[in-house]
Amino acid sequence: MPISRDAVLDWIKAYADAIAANKDYLTQLDSDIGDADHGVNMHRGFQAALTKLPGVADKDIGTILKTVGMTLVSTVGGAGGPLYGTLFMQMGAATPSKQELTLADWATALEAGINGVIMRGKAQLGDKTMVDALTPALAAIKEATANSASLSGALQQSAQAAEQGMKDTIPLVARKGRASYLGERSAGHQDPGATSSHLLLKTAADTWAGAS
Amino acid sequence: MKKLINKPEDVVTDELNGIVAAHSDLVRVHFDPNFIARADAPVKGKVGVISGGGSGHEPMHGGFVGMGMLDAACPGAVFTSPTPDQMLEATKAVNGGAGVLHIVKNYTGDIMNFEMAADLARAEGIEVEAVVTNDDVAVKDSLYTAGRRGVGVTVLAEKMCGAAAEQKRSLKEVADVCRKVNGQGRSMGMALTSCTVPHAGKPTFDLPEDEMEIGVGIHGEPGRKRMKLQTAAEITEMLAGPILDDLPFKSGDSVLAFVNGMGGTPLIELYVVYNELAKICAGRGVKIARNLIGSYITSLEMAGCSITLVKMDDDLLRLWDAPVKTPGLRWGV
Ligand SMILES: Nc1ncnc2c1ncn2[C@@H]1O[C@H](COP(=O)(O)OP(=O)(O)OP(=O)(O)O)[C@@H](O)[C@H]1O
Ligand SMILES: [Mg+2]
Fold it and tell me: Is residue A189 part of a domain?
């Protein structure tokens, strides 16, 4: 069973809950190397996105993802707003009129979203940003696809890769975003954006565990 | 946390309502999306000048809306850049047909949100130019990083661009003034205490009684290095030295010197710093032609200061002296 439209809606709701539960944690990470707002920003955006879901619940997956993206752009602010907004808008643009997603569809959507993030933020792997969690997650999905893994297995592997990518940001010296102002002092801290991105993929793997 | 607020989530809205209550003669406030515009905007045939950024830096930017300075300001949540719909609506509201200049401080969030807004405004047929301020010498500049932060120069650029726009200069000419002020301006700041973001509830960093942070920005973020507290003379040297060396400012140069309080430092201390700065400049043969002393670009209740120097020429001096009538800066009227 591929990922249904309702499952996509469930994923967004589950992520909004995960952000709410981790709001203080994300903000704490951001106060170590940023400006103490990442959790609050993301929470504001996903609460706003939740209010938009009923209006698009009977639309296709592309429309749902684009709506979430546009809501994030107009409510999150900071770097997170344009970056997560672009991620969702590009995922939506890559899944037009879809009523369900296969593993290949999801890989395409994620790749489009990540490319959007890289275009907007110009970060590279190793710059200590959310890209460090997202890029390995995409690579893991592609590898799992090549090895004809199950959908749920591929999602698990991508969540694990994102987790590893997130942890790997700890020793890095930030080269993008606010954390870069700290220079060497940014090393030794986990990047907040990579942490929220890992949560996004972990929530996908958990919510869609029954998909195949 | 001890603050004069009602609820942390209402701080920005309550503040904007306070501005409505206090300054309706000068500005009007638009809610959802939030922006503050000149009461008489759009001014026909004049370039619109707008800026924006996170809240918590008052009077910047909202306090600088009015004749001779900004046409509109877009306040984000505390220390969080505003969203593109705010800048788009502000741009439309102040477009008098001569185009709109976006003055953007160099922070990843501000850049990306303003970029998205400029794209949307251009799609609606409005001519937009964006100039990024990046004057903080505490940050090492590099092509591979986010680059230097925009700090004190932003206030001075807003004043001089506003004056240039009043003279009905073209969009390109007003943008050139901004690029010139930014290109010839350098800043550096320091903190004696951290500050508390209302929704975070506790200080962003701990700073022991006898220590200070050198090279801080304006968001309560840690700076480049932490050290034992020293005298105002030594601290001023630590800030002015890198500024003077960076441009570099040379003997014979004429400058606008800006000693800025971070929000929690009294004016008496800013004058102590200014006295040291004046001596240092004199020692290097740099002539202070104009000065600005006070808390204009703040970091909530942080104690500390920043110093900004801009190399001036006759045109910039005239633009600086031109009349301005805003809640936060007013002369010549
Ligand atoms: N150029 C970039 N490319 C990709 N990700 C980035 C970039 N800059 C920052 N980030 C991510 O954004 C996260 C911070 O997001 P947050 O919502 O706190 O914005 P912010 O940097 O505080 O924005 P602002 O400066 O406007 O307040 C970082 O942890 C990092 O993962
Ligand atoms: Mg932040």
Answer: yes
